[in-house]
Design goal:
about 80 residues, mainly alpha, elongated
Protein backbone atom coordinates (compact mmCIF):
# COMPACT_ATOMS: atom_id res chain seq x y z
CA UNK A 1 0.00 0.00 0.00
CA UNK A 2 1.28 3.47 -0.84
CA UNK A 3 2.18 5.85 1.97
CA UNK A 4 0.41 9.18 2.28
CA UNK A 5 1.86 11.96 4.42
CA UNK A 6 -1.46 13.46 5.54
CA UNK A 7 -2.86 10.09 6.56
CA UNK A 8 0.35 9.06 8.29
CA UNK A 9 0.42 12.34 10.23
CA UNK A 10 -3.19 11.84 11.26
CA UNK A 11 -2.42 8.32 12.48
CA UNK A 12 0.58 9.59 14.46
CA UNK A 13 -1.62 12.21 16.11
CA UNK A 14 -4.33 9.65 16.82
CA UNK A 15 -1.78 7.25 18.31
CA UNK A 16 -0.63 10.01 20.66
CA UNK A 17 -4.18 11.05 21.57
CA UNK A 18 -5.26 7.53 22.58
CA UNK A 19 -1.92 6.21 23.83
CA UNK A 20 -3.63 5.16 27.10
CA UNK A 21 -5.62 2.38 25.38
CA UNK A 22 -4.47 -1.17 25.96
CA UNK A 23 -5.52 -2.06 22.41
CA UNK A 24 -3.79 0.97 20.88
CA UNK A 25 -2.07 -0.93 18.07
CA UNK A 26 -5.30 -2.69 17.06
CA UNK A 27 -7.29 0.55 17.02
CA UNK A 28 -4.70 2.48 15.01
CA UNK A 29 -4.27 -0.43 12.59
CA UNK A 30 -8.04 -0.51 12.03
CA UNK A 31 -8.07 3.25 11.42
CA UNK A 32 -5.15 2.91 9.02
CA UNK A 33 -7.00 0.26 7.06
CA UNK A 34 -10.15 2.40 6.78
CA UNK A 35 -8.27 5.57 5.91
CA UNK A 36 -6.06 3.97 3.28
CA UNK A 37 -8.98 2.10 1.72
CA UNK A 38 -10.93 5.33 1.42
CA UNK A 39 -7.97 7.16 -0.13
CA UNK A 40 -7.46 4.35 -2.64
CA UNK A 41 -11.15 4.42 -3.54
CA UNK A 42 -11.08 8.19 -4.07
CA UNK A 43 -7.93 7.91 -6.18
CA UNK A 44 -9.71 5.37 -8.36
CA UNK A 45 -12.45 7.95 -8.99
CA UNK A 46 -9.87 10.39 -10.31
CA UNK A 47 -9.01 12.59 -7.34
CA UNK A 48 -5.43 13.71 -6.90
CA UNK A 49 -3.58 12.14 -3.93
CA UNK A 50 -3.62 15.26 -1.77
CA UNK A 51 -7.33 15.86 -2.42
CA UNK A 52 -8.15 12.22 -1.74
CA UNK A 53 -6.28 12.34 1.56
CA UNK A 54 -7.92 15.57 2.65
CA UNK A 55 -11.41 14.34 1.71
CA UNK A 56 -10.77 11.15 3.67
CA UNK A 57 -9.64 13.02 6.77
CA UNK A 58 -12.56 15.45 6.50
CA UNK A 59 -14.92 12.46 6.58
CA UNK A 60 -13.14 10.77 9.49
CA UNK A 61 -12.98 13.83 11.74
CA UNK A 62 -10.44 15.58 13.91
CA UNK A 63 -8.22 13.21 15.92
CA UNK A 64 -8.76 15.16 19.15
CA UNK A 65 -12.55 14.86 18.79
CA UNK A 66 -12.34 11.17 17.97
CA UNK A 67 -10.04 10.60 20.96
CA UNK A 68 -12.60 12.31 23.20
CA UNK A 69 -15.26 9.90 21.93
CA UNK A 70 -13.00 6.96 22.75
CA UNK A 71 -12.45 8.35 26.24
CA UNK A 72 -16.12 9.12 26.93
CA UNK A 73 -17.70 5.74 26.26
CA UNK A 74 -17.78 2.64 28.42
CA UNK A 75 -16.45 0.48 25.61
CA UNK A 76 -13.76 3.00 24.66
CA UNK A 77 -15.14 3.39 21.16
CA UNK A 78 -18.14 4.40 19.18
Amino acid sequence: MARYALIDGYLDTMRNEIRWRRDLDDVVCEMEDHLYSTVEHLLATGLEPSAAQQATLDRFGEPEVLAAVYASTNSGGM
